[in-house]
């Protein structure tokens, strides 16, 4: 016999009917705490009052039985903790999910395991809430057909912390502001973190690996991304951090390694008279360290360690003016100058041109030979005796000679 325990009003209910959990919720006074013993409970429940549901031991499973959303939260001040939530439906048009919170505030979902659910946790107009220490896995579908592990839609001032998204699709933050996204982990997803039309968010100390894209910021502003580690973004266009039409961003102290593109910069900063600060990052062992697309000027790219990449800078637009960014005091492992006065700053600027590699940048068919001895030989010969005018990309007027640490 199972017992559901309420605070404020203590009831003992026998586990006699499949929908007992919904009945217990309906009968509980506002503010009650339901402590569930181990067992399987029928899902598709609706919580429409302030309530706490806690698994008081491991093995508390709420099963949606393959239909719809497992738990819908329609009240503020709801807490869900230490639950395993499985078996949502598989309808994208209905956003079948493990948990949907809609138009609420000051809720918490923590220490839950979500498995075999199309979408994980969906926040729709949710404010001042905490989503922490959850492990989320989607249904076993192809990558593009999985649902998003975490979704924030018009949701502000939330804390998203220490969650793991494994074999999900994306974590998305759309039209959402003032959120802290910290210490999360993403693996074998598509976009481990994707922003659109979002501002004043803090992205701190997250770890993402083996995803198609690490972090991509679009049409956003006033955001700080610091301390993140992104590695092994998969595929020919695998990307560490991407920015598209963003303004007033600080991207600092991040580590990006083993990606096809370390940083992708597209028409950023977007708003006039603004900057983006790309500082103190480690961009290591990528195919391309910095990839500029379209017109991107007034970025401040400073004090970064750029080492072990096949290409340090790629500019794929002939009209782009990479040299109109402030690029200063970075460490470039292929700098060919000296430091006679020992101040750890090169005596001559580090100037970068595109030679024969223009061929593959502008012609995708030629990229088949990218990294081959043929292109390397052409580049070497072009530097000795240019047969086409090289394209000047940028100069770092004060390159760092020796990297510390």
User: In DSSP terms, counting alpha (H) and pi (I) runs of 4 or more, how many helices?
Assistant: 3
By DSSP, the count of extended strands is 40
C-alpha Rg, in Å? Answer: 25 Å
Query: How would you characterize the largest beta sheet?
Result: 13 strands, parallel
Gross morphology is elongated
- The helix/strand class is mainly beta
Keywords, separated by commas or semicolons:
3 helices, mainly beta, 13-stranded parallel β-sheet, disordered N terminus
Please summarize what this structure is:
By secondary structure, the chain is mainly β. It has three helices and 40 strands.
Mind explaining what this structure looks like?
The chain has 405 residues and is mostly beta strands. It is built from 3 helices and 40 strands. The strands form 4 sheets. Strands 1-4-7-10-13-16-19-22-25-28-31-34-37 form a 13-stranded parallel sheet, with no helix packed on it. The longest helix is centred in the C-terminal third of the chain and has 12 residues, at 373-384. The protein is elongated. Mean pLDDT is 89; it is low at 1-17.
SSE topology:
Layout: H1 20-27, E1 32-36, E2 39-42, E3 45-47, E4 51-55, E5 60-63, E6 71-73, E7 78-81, E8 84-86, E9 97-105, E10 108-110, E11 113-115, E12 119-127, E13 130-132, E14 135-136, E15 150-153, E16 159-161, E17 164-166, E18 171-174, E19 180-182, E20 185-187, E21 191-196, E22 202-204, E23 207-209, E24 213-218, E25 224-226, E26 229-231, E27 239-244, E28 250-252, E29 255-257, E30 261-266, E31 276-279, E32 282-284, E33 288-293, E34 299-302, E35 305-307, E36 311-315, E37 326-328, E38 331-332, E39 350-354, H2 358-362, H3 373-384, E40 391-396
Parallel strand pairs: 1-4, 2-5, 3-6, 4-7, 5-8, 6-9, 7-10, 8-11, 9-12, 10-13, 11-14, 12-15, 13-16, 14-17, 15-18, 16-19, 17-20, 18-21, 19-22, 20-23, 21-24, 22-25, 23-26, 24-27, 25-28, 26-29, 27-30, 28-31, 29-32, 30-33, 31-34, 32-35, 33-36, 34-37, 35-38
Antiparallel strand pairs: 39-40
């Amino acid at each position: 016999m199972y017992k559901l325990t309420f605070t404020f009003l203590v009831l003992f209910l026998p586990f006699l009917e499949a929908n007992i959990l919904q009945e217990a919720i309906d009968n509980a006074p506002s503010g009650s705490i339901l402590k569930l013993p181990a067992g399987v409970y029928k899902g598709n429940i609706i919580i429409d009052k302030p309530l706490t549901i806690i698994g008081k031991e491991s093995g508390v499973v709420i099963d949606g039985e393959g239909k719809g959303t497992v738990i819908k939260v329609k009240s503020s001040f709801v807490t869900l903790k230490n639950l395993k939530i499985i078996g949502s439906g598989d309808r994208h048009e209905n956003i079948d999910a493990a948990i949907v919170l809609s138009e609420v505030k000051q809720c918490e979902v923590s220490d839950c395991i979500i498995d075999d659910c199309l979408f994980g946790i969906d926040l729709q107009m949710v404010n001042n809430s905490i989503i922490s220490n959850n492990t989320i896995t989607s249904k076993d579908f192809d990558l593009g057909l999985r649902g998003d592990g975490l979704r924030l839609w018009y949701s502000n001032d939330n804390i998203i912390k220490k969650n793991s998204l494994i074999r999900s699709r994306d974590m998305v933050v759309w039209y959402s502001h003032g959120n802290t996204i910290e210490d999360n982990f993403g693996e074998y997803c598509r976009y481990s973190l994707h922003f659109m039309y979002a501002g004043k968010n803090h992205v701190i100390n997250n770890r993402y690996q083996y995803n198609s894209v690490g972090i991509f910021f679009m049409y956003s502003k006033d955001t700080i991304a610091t301390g993140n580690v992104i590695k092994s973004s998969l595929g020919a266009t695998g990307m560490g951090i991407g920015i598209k039409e963003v303004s007033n961003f600080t991207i600092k102290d991040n580590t990006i390694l083993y990606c096809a593109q370390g940083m992708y910069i597209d028409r950023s900063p977007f708003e006039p008279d603004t900057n983006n600060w790309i500082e103190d990052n480690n961009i290591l062992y990528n195919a391309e360290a910095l990839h500029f697309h379209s017109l991107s000027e007034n970025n401040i790219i400073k004090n970064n360690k750029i080492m072990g990449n096949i290409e340090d800078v790629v500019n794929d637009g002939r009209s782009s003016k990479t040299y109109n960014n402030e690029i200063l005091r970075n460490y470039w492992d292929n700098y060919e100058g000296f430091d006679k006065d020992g101040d750890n700053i090169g005596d001559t600027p580090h100037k970068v041109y595109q030679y024969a590699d223009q061929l593959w940048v502008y012609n995708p068919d030629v990229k088949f030979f990218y990294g081959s001895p043929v292109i390397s030989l052409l580049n070497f010969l072009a530097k000795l005796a240019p047969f086409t005018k090289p394209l000047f990309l940028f100069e770092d007027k004060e390159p760092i000679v020796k990297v510390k640490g």
